[in-house]
Automatic annotation (TrEMBL):
It comes from Melghiribacillus thermohalophilus. CDD domains: TM_PBP2. This is Carbohydrate ABC transporter membrane protein 1 (CUT1 family). Belongs to the binding-protein-dependent transport system permease family. The chain crosses the membrane at residues 9-28, 176-200, 212-235, 371-393. The keyword Cell membrane applies. Residues 83-141 form a coiled coil.
């Protein structure tokens, strides 16, 4: 086999670049975030920190007011030893300020400085508590709060390693959303395969208006998912929805308002909407496989006395297996990652009955601003998708090797 030369390699550089930017880099970022307690709604955890840092501005401001209030309280402090302790505390506060003179924002510090800041906090906290029992200090209520902010000026490392993954193993909500995702994927893909195969066989027949039938069958798939979900939400509405009224009249539900307000009704409604929208896509993929089957095989089977049902199971299905596997691969991966349809239609309700892993990850990341644990959920989804893809590729690859 001829080795790839430098010129041949240059042809695939743009492809490798696009894959790296749009596929690998987001995965690497999510993988990195999953090892941190990364929260945008918490100032102390709003960035990735492997070691402690120091908020110079916060410390400077708090130490200024502590020193000011202690100096104002000095006339009330009559005991000489107490006055010496106050003066020592003020000197320690100023000593730290001098070390960071000219610096601003959040900076890296050594372990010695960390210990020094903690010692200042502990001594200040203890001293103010003792003085408050004996003297009437200026801003006696606010002083402890200011001293607490000295400790808050130390921005702790938010690196948690595998703690996020350990939490995920005991997260009941995540396990439930995984079950919902698997149920949605298995049921919807199975129904889409059955209906899509039926549509493909109809479209494969040489009938009048064949082109028009193929074009019109793709309309549901061509509609944007968010628009389709909004449309189905009106059809499911318990007060004026046509589908809800039909289901009630057929006895599928007791009341039309129950369709989107019960667990079984919610997941059934989501699956129905997904099957309606995506079945045409499955049909087109299978139609391509059907058109590769020679008509001579059906003629030979007919001469041998095979019925239409026998021809389907003995000729169509075996030769269509590679196309079925490819269609199942695409649809399974797509269904497992479903988000927009469910988010627009039910937002994961009622009571989390339709909350898939992607919806749960979105709520954690953008609702709670917890990008660390949200990334853990995303990485678990990535692992599940990788396992599914590997299984399909193994089955597909074995089938193609046998065929060759």
């Amino acid at each position: 086999m001829k080795k790839m030369g430098f010129k041949e390699f240059l042809y695939i550089v743009p492809v490798l670049f696009l894959i790296g930017v749009f596929s690998l880099w987001p995965v690497i970022q999510s993988f990195t975030y999953s090892f941190f307690d990364y929260r945008l709604n918490d100032q102390t955890k709003s960035e990735l920190l492997l070691s402690e840092k120091f908020n110079v501005d916060l410390y400077s401001e708090r130490s200024f007011y502590i020193e000011r209030f202690l100096n104002q309280s000095m006339p009330e402090i009559t005991d000489g030893e107490d006055r010496q302790q106050v003066e020592k505390l003020i000197a320690d506060l100023n000593d730290l300020n001098q070390q960071f003179e000219g610096q601003e924002g959040v900076i890296k510090i050594s372990g010695d400085v960390t210990d020094q800041v903690k010692n200042v906090y502990e001594s200040a906290d203890q001293l103010v508590a003792e003085l408050s029992e004996t003297y009437e200090l200026v801003q006696e209520e606010n002083l402890p709060l200011l001293i607490d902010d000295i400790q808050n000026s130390l921005v702790q490392s938010n690196f948690i390693g595998l703690e996020g993954y350990a939490k995920a193993l005991t997260d009941d909500r995540l396990q439930y959303s995984l079950g919902v995702t698997l149920a949605f994927t298995i049921i919807s893909v199975f129904l889409e395969l059955v209906f899509g195969l039926g549509m493909a066989m109809i479209m494969n027949k040489a009938i009048q208006g064949q082109g028009f039938i193929r074009v019109t069958s793709l309309i549901p798939w061509a509609i944007p998912t968010a628009v389709a979900a909004l449309m189905w939400s009106y059809l499911y509405d318990g007060h004026y929805g046509v589908v809800a009224a039909i289901f009630e009249s057929l006895g599928f539900i007791e009341n039309s308002t129950d369709l989107l307000q019960t667990s079984l009704g919610g997941i059934s409604a989501v699956i129905l909407a997904d099957v309606w929208k995506t079945t045409p896509y499955m049909a087109i993929l299978l139609l391509a496989g059907l058109q590769n089957i020679p008509n001579t095989l059906y003629e030979a089977a007919s001469i041998d006395g095979a019925s239409k049902i026998q021809q389907f199971f003995k000729v169509t299905l075996p030769l269509l297996k590679p196309s079925i596997l490819v269609a199942l691969l695409f649809r399974t991966l797509d269904a497992f990652r479903v988000f927009d349809l469910i988010y627009v239609l039910t937002s994961g309700g009622p009571g989390g009955a339709t909350e898939t892993m992607s919806v749960y990850a979105y709520k954690v990341m953008f609702g709670q601003m917890n990008f660390g644990y949200g990334s853990v959920i995303v990485m678990i989804m990535f692992i599940c998708v990788a396992i599914i893809a590997t299984i399909y590729v193994k089955v597909l690859g074995t089938n193609l090797m046998e065929k060759n």
